[in-house]
Design goal:
single chain, 13 strands, seven-stranded parallel sheet
Length: about 325
């Protein structure tokens, strides 16, 4: 009987995921959820045939070179910018990701951030908890309208489309900018415009772009200056799409009305300035954090691994070439 391939799971996962993988792999799993340095990760991965990683794991050429037996990398995330695809292609290493299962949860999170930012929920709650509320006033924590406002979506893939579907319930005008026109734009009631036009017209801007060298700092000082001074910016995509330092300056100067962020440059070491501005809502990368979505992501990663071990087609492969 052939030996089972060796698998390293870099972060704690649900027990049912381990159960799904155990018949097919010799598993080392980080169920203690220890934080490994790159050197420690490389040491543990050195003899492994397969890796189950997450978006916070940097799978660069150095790690790949340290794993001569490595044949597949399954990431439990939609994004895969943390994996050196060129190095994987050169080595013939298969890569998979976990699209679809987190679409609706992440779209819900976009709306949670949008509503909280527009209506100054966190800012007013902190003020209330600090004991400042003594009486009601007409001009107390005036926020931005959502119903009937103009929503701008940068990136109209699965999640962007799900955000747009929800916007129709608020009778919003929907603008979107994308690399190409979306086939479902008529169904969504969305209008295709250039990025600058979207930023100039939108009352609320939601970012749903994949991260790459081309999308790095898609929103910087120039783009923030185009936005309405009352507009909100929501980032549920990836850190690095927004120049966080420029955003801090824009928030401090009142060049935009507010921001809602679930992702950050260099997370979890976010720009300290974001902690000092009151008109920003901050969450710790929890866009997909519902139990059904997170289990779905982990199980899909496991299904890709089992398919590879069985010689079957992967459910959700990533093109590396």
């Amino acid at each position: 009987m052939a030996a089972r391939p060796k698998l390293l799971i870099t972060r704690q996962v649900f027990d049912e995921v381990i159960d799904h993988l155990s018949p097919h792999f010799d598993i080392i799993a980080n169920q203690a959820d220890d934080e490994w340095t790159p050197a420690e990760l490389a040491q543990r991965a050195a003899d492994r045939d397969a890796l189950f990683v997450v978006a916070s794991d940097r799978v660069d050429r150095a790690l790949i070179d340290a794993c001569p037996s490595l044949k597949i990398i399954a990431t439990g995330s939609v994004g895969y910018n943390h994996i050196d695809l060129k190095a994987c292609h050169e080595r013939g290493i298969t890569v998979s990701n976990t699209p679809d299962v987190l679409t609706e949860a992440t779209a819900d999170m976009a709306w949670a951030l949008l509503m909280a930012t527009a209506r100054r929920i966190c800012e007013s709650e902190h003020w209330l908890r600090a004991g400042h509320w003594q009486r009601w006033a007409f001009d107390q924590f005036l926020g931005a309208d959502v119903h009937g406002a103009t929503l701008g979506i940068l990136g109209m893939g699965r999640i962007g489309s799900a955000v747009a579907r929800r916007a129709r319930g608020f009778d919003m005008k929907i603008l979107y900018s994308n690399r190409s026109r979306a086939a479902n734009e008529a169904e969504l009631g969305a209008h295709f415009v250039g990025k600058d036009e979207l930023l100039e017209q939108a009352d609320h801007v939601v970012l749903v772009l994949p991260y790459s060298a081309q999308t790095h700092h898609t929103i910087g000082a120039r783009e923030l200056a185009l936005m309405k001074p009352t507009a909100t910016l929501i980032n549920i995509a990836r850190g690095g799409i927004v120049d966080d330092a420029a955003l801090v300056q824009a928030l401090r100067a009142g060049r935009i009305g507010g921001a809602g962020l679930d992702v950050y440059e260099n997370e979890p070491a976010l720009d300290a300035g974001l902690l000092d501005v009151p008109n920003v809502v901050l969450t710790p990368h929890i866009g997909s954090a519902t139990r059904s979505s997170r289990i779905g992501m982990a199980i899909l990663a496991a299904r890709n691994l089992v398919a590879f071990a069985s010689g079957a087609a992967l459910p959700t492969p990533v093109a590396t070439g």
